[in-house]
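Hey, quick one: can you model this chain's 3D structure?
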Amino acid sequence: MHPEATADPQTVRWVVPVGTLPVVGEVAEAPDELGRMLHSGEVTSIEVETQAVVIRLADGRSWSGAGARVRDALSAALQHPRRWRPADVVTEDDVLRAALRDVLDGSVGDYIRSHGGEVTIVSAHDRRAEVRMAGTCSHCPAAGSTLHSRLESALRARFPDLVELRATEEPGKAARRTWLTLRRRSA
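Sure thing. Here's the predicted structure for all 187 residues.
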């Protein structure tokens, strides 16, 4: 695990291996010392992403003063993934949607946007995801390659139980609609 600074000086994003925690979103309860820091108000919020834990210190606290304690508390809390409790009920569909959002907000989305394309989430349920490809993606002959070699690979790294990733072009933007479907290979 390693820390990354954010735009908010009170907030640090702690990068952890994908799948470390079975929750995403705001945390209501964390194990041991990290949980005590949250309940005492020393830490004002903890949010779990698919590959990071974002922790915000209370105003008036500094990472130079509390950083080592938070790091040690987070490290210990990560050893008990089943004891983390989200603020809201989190389903497997929520985890898939969060993983897909991470991928599209990260380097894969940057790559697609750099070529004038746009990919938006249509749905994420039952271990299946559907995205809509628009912009230059809607008529690009390499869209299938981008979907498979970049998007699917990155999504599968964050959500290994993916069964299917399906994409459709934006309606009305191309002369023909194309469905690109990738299914998990049978073992």
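One thing worth noting: Strands lie at 2-5, 11-15, 25-29, 43-49, 52-57, 85-86, 117-125, 128-135, 164-169, 179-183.
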